[in-house]
Amino acid sequence: MLTKGTTMRWMRKIVIAVSAVVAVVGSTIGSGAAGGTPIAEAAGGALSASSTAIAPGGPAFGIWSVIYVGLIAFAVWQFLPRRDDQARHDRLAVPATLSLLLNAAWILSVQFGLLWASEPIIVALLGVLAWAFVVLRRTEPSGRVEAIVTDGTFGLYLGWVCVATAANTAAVLTAAGFRGFGIGQDAWGVVVAAVAGLVGVLVAVTGRGRIAPTLSLGWGLAWVAVARLDGPLVSVPTAVAALVATAAVVVVTLVTRARAGWVARPATLRTA
Questions:
Q1: 9-18, long-range: CB within 8 Å, 24+ apart, which pairs?
Q2: Is the pTM of this model over 0.85?
Q3: What is the 8-class DSSP label of residue 39?
């Protein structure tokens, strides 16, 4: 006979699994594969690679495929018969579920041309991913696979959404007619890239050198640089700032990781 606690745990697993399916279905719509409009073309092209100085190049969005595979793996992983990480997953359940549903909501808001609505949604998504990051930082993975599937997936998710939030905010402001208080686009591009880099440094320090957030955030900023060096919206200062920010985040991550003893103590399993 199932106890109340066991029943709630199974409900939590099912809700996460269903939310993961909703997020993946939303992604197929957002990619244009299921009859939807590709994100870069939706909302009048406000989120295309040439819309603002901080917009990443198109290939950058390929990281979503890796993130979605990780999210499905996480949804499946929680059903496996283990007991050593159940408490950890219980604490992660709410932010994980909210992140999946907000992900789908963001895609739908853009698909329906509600660009203004996409901003509070993606900010909320960033917030719940930060919440998930804190949960994972304060708890230990049960093993290397758990670290990769759970910590790695949500680390990539967080790092990429940091860049996506900056790009989304710039797109919303531009679409609303904001012209930067007379400050040039190059200057704003440098400022936003620097802020994104500072966020990456903060994540690296508070996360004690976790690699996954740095990989995705660095990936996004690198593609911002590529898009600013080749395309209809060239901005060399923004490209340089994005590359410097990427390098800074990588260096701080490696130094923090080394100081925390992660390289010397691989048994901690904090590989993600």
A1: 9/86, 9/90, 12/89, 12/90, 12/93, 13/78, 13/79, 15/93, 15/97, 16/74, 16/75, 16/78, 16/93, 16/96, 16/97, 16/100, 17/75, 17/76, 17/78, 17/79
A2: yes
A3: T
Question: What is the band of 4 on the pLDDT scale with cuts at 50, 70, 90?
Answer: low
Measured distance CA(123)–CA(128) in Å, rounded:
9
pLDDT digits (tens, 9 = 90+) for 183-198: 888 999 999 999 999 9
Measure the CA angle with vertex 192, ends 127 and 249; round to 5°.
75
Over the stretch 51-90, which tens digit does the pLDDT of each residue have?
899 999 989 999 999 999 999 999 999 888 766 678 888 8
List C-alpha distances in Å: 178 to 51, 55, 79, 163, 254: 13, 16, 48, 20, 38
Give the up-direction half-sphere exposure of residue 267: CA atoms within 13 A in the CB hemisphere.
Answer: 1
Encoded tokens for 194:
């620097």
Compute the distance between CA of residue 47 and CA of residue 57 in angstroms, rounded to an integer.
10
